Amino acid sequence: MKKACLLFFVGIAYFQGYSQTPTPLLPQTNTEKEWDISLYGFARTDFIWDSRKSAFTREGQLNLYPLDVILDANGKDINDAPQSNFLSITSRLGVKAKGPNVWGAKTSSVIEGDFYGNVEGGTIGLLRLRHAYINLEWSKTAVTIGQTWYPQFIPEVFPGVANFNTGILFNPFGWATQAKIKQMLTTEFSVTFTAYKEREFTAPGPGTQNSASINSVLPSINAQIQYKGKNSILGLGIEYKSLQPLTVSNNLVTTEKANSTSIFGYGKYSNEKFSIKAYGISGGNLNSLVMLGGYTGKTIAGQVETYNPTKTTAVWIDLASNGKAIAPGLFFGYTKNNGSKDDNTTATFVNYLRGISGNRIVDNVWRASGRVDFKKNKFRVTPELEYTDATWGDLNKSNATAGANKTAVGNFRTMISCAYSF
Fold it and tell me: In which region does residue 400 sit, left (phi positive, over 0), alpha (psi from -120 to 50) or beta (all else)?
């Protein structure tokens, strides 16, 4: 009996010892989060003072060009009047998301809005969609689908001005729903192809908003090549656009298009101390980019309306310090209305343009500004002085150019911008 009990306890000890023997380590699982969602944005307030009335959007937040001289009964210029405002409508909120891979591609998405409103008037202060897109990224190829920047707007190369205009009239601006593919040729060179439909800031054509883009089966096609090195970026692009303002004109079925092309180029150099950026664009019907021009409509009795794009040329340069606490900067931009090629004086013309007022039209605009960024952590205060000069002239309706009686008018803008980012 004693021998049986001894064997029993020896067996228990054996199995207890075996159970405490370390087991081989299992393969480590991937601890990376399947989903990663983050918020970003900023709260911003601007104080603005202008010496003269200007063409603007949203109660003066974004100034385009000073208005022409218009005399009252006593010979005084009614547009020679100062204005000021406080605004916080450019405050912004966005959501970034990353999720599981799709077909071997890293996936991400962005939805972003601000409180700028969609049109002048009652929508000011309401939420406006800026970006809403999906991105698929492989090792050398990336595909973007959704609403984001027009392909002519280069996020790495735009003016660093404090004014919310972001160099508007001289630098393309706005968003469009699009399909974009980017292919890396080497570690430094890439090519990008984009097909998009206009949505924001479209020309005031004969149809409803965006009808010219919707009526055209062919989307706008944009292609560019870019070099991106350690300290520099260089790029060159070309675009073809075909819009169809109407399907019925003068009670006749029409397929008349406003066809246009444009080219653009840009560059940036940046190091620890300073950065310099430059951009140039020239082409027809750049209205949707918040630039001068658009297209003309020509009608001959008994025929449908036909269209000609007006050509616009714009250049700018921006020089800024990269100081971490204090960073001054300078900006200069120039844009010119080159008109259309049509010069038929027997037809009836309607001009669907930006930069026109009655029988007067903008010939050219230039702007110079200086700023200083004072930065501390996520807080920034930026005072800026800006002068914008516009030359107006009598409208030549047939080719949408400025003729006689040219007059230069200027607006001096003083502003202080405060923003807290998160």
Answer: left
Close Cβ partners of 299 (under 8 Å, ≥ 6 residues apart): 249, 250, 305, 306, 347, 348, 349, 350
Total structural domains in the chain?
Answer: 1
Judge whether 256 lies within some domain.
Answer: yes
How many CA atoms within 13 Å lie on the side-chain side of 180?
27
Task: State the average pLDDT over residues 180-209.
Answer: 89
Provide the residue range defining the domain that includes 145: 55-87+140-421
Residue length of the chain: 422
Residue 123 falls inside a structural domain: no
For residue 47, tell me if it sits in a domain: no
Rounded Cα–Cα distance for residues 355 and 403 (Å): 14
- Res. 395: pLDDT tops 80: yes
Residue 340, pLDDT > 80, answer yes
Q: Given a cut of 90, is residue 379 above it in pLDDT?
A: yes
Count the Cβ atoms, other than its own, within 10 Å of residue 49. Answer: 14
Q: Which CATH number do you get for residue 347? A: 2.40.160
pLDDT confidence bin for 56, thresholds 50/70/90: confident
